[in-house]
Every structure is written in structure tokens, then in C-alpha cells.
Amino acid sequence: MDIAFSELKAWRKSQRERLIAQRMALAPASVQSARQKIDAALERSFPGLGRCRIALCWPIKNEYDARHLAKTLRERGALTALPVVVAPRQPLAFREWHPGVALAKGPLDIPFPVDSPPVTPDAVVVPMNGWDLGGYRLGYGGGFFDRTLASLAKKPVVIGASYEFGRLDTIHPQPWDIPMDYVVTERGVYRRDAEGLVFLQAPEPSGAGKLASPVCYADEDYFRGKRP
Q: Which of 45, 84, 87, 134 is the most exposed place for a label (fewest CB within 10 A)?
């Protein structure tokens, strides 16, 4: 379905507001439970994250809180980073972050590292207000992540993290919208292929899941030989 750009902006704004309100209404126990399930799916399905440079986002408004995952991954040898807004309508920068790094408040009062070393991430875990069956992300409307991914010489593996209720049939993607490689919710992991998102059964803790799929082997496929 074709949709005028002005109508698209208004529609995305209404969907964003609806999904944020639904997320903000979640009980703390539900937020915690979803976070733990997403953590488990990421840890088991992407073992290579523990050996790479990974960019995460500081959570706001009951988004998925990747800080717990970051601690686990650092203990396994990963280097973790946070995005930094450099200027309006410009790509984001990424700077190393771990406890002890000085932080300042940026747009939306989101903390960012002040003077830590720059990082070029191998993987990025991106929070999503909503997501569609093509793997496209409904963010906050600033376009920062799309510009950033388009600007990088080597595209990192991009994993969108959201709630299952954020799923939409389509966000009516535009030419500048960049889809996620994977989407992870409290239900499990989706992989994007030529036809759109395919749900993958999360592997068992032993690593011997019933469904063999590329996501289970992301260690070899994407992170071989990479170190912080």
C-alpha cells in the first residue's frame, strides 16, 4: 500500500505513542521477566557476542535493559560501548562504556560516555518501540541509527530487541530504512531472510536446540577471530 510521506509520519507517530504507552503500563515484574528472557535468548543464540565489540543502548521508558547483558558479556571478554549523538541529522558515534566511565546526559536525558575511546562495533543491540514482519524498526523518528548504519564502512550485525506486542504487519519502510538482521523478543529469536522474518526456536541451554539454524552458529558466521 502506497502512503504519502506526511501520512506516514503521522501514522508512525501514533503507533510509536501507542506502543510506548503500552510498554510504560507494564508492571515491573513483567519488564523484569521479559528482560531475563531476552537476555537468555541473546546469550544462547549469539555466543560470539562474548568475544566482540558490542554497542548497546541505555534503556528508557521500560525498554529492554541491556546493561545486565553487558555485564555478562564483559565477563566473557567483550568490549561494550554506548552511542553518542554528535549533532542533529548526523550519524552516531560509539564510545567504550563500563562502570567507572564518566557519563553525561544527552537527548531524551539518555546518558552517554564523555571521553572514553571510540569504538567501531562488530554488533549492535538496538531497542525498538515496534518492529514489522520485514525486520524494520520503529524508533523515535530521528533516523540516527539508519544514518549510522549507512555510514559505517563495514556493517555490524544488527539485533533489534523489543516486546512481542510491538510486532506490526509493516512500518511502511522507506528507502533509507535499514532492517535488523535479527529481532529478539521475550518469545525468542527471529532471523531476517529474503522473505522477511523467520522465527527460530531458541536453542536449549546445552546448545542442542531442536531447530538448527544460522542464528545458532552466529559465533562462526559473524564473530570468528574478532576481539575487542
A: 87
* First vs last C-alpha separation in the chain: 44
Query: Where do the domains of the chain lie?
Result: 5-223
Mind spelling out the 3-state secondary structure of 54-118? Answer: EECCCCCCCCCCCHHHHHHHHHCCCEEEEEECCCCCCCCEEEECCCCCCEEECHHHCEEECCCCE
Q: pTM here?
A: 0.87
Phi, psi of 127 (to 5 degrees): -70, 150
Cell of 40: 537468555
Angle (CA) 159 161 164, round 5°? 130
Residue range 2-57, pLDDT digits in tens: 678 889 999 999 999 999 999 999 999 999 999 999 999 999 999 999 999 999 99
Which CATH number among 3.40.640.10, 3.10.590.10, 3.40.50.10420, 3.40.50.150 corresponds to the domain 5-223?
3.40.50.10420
pLDDT in tens, 122-168: 999 999 999 999 999 999 988 888 999 889 888 999 999 999 999 99
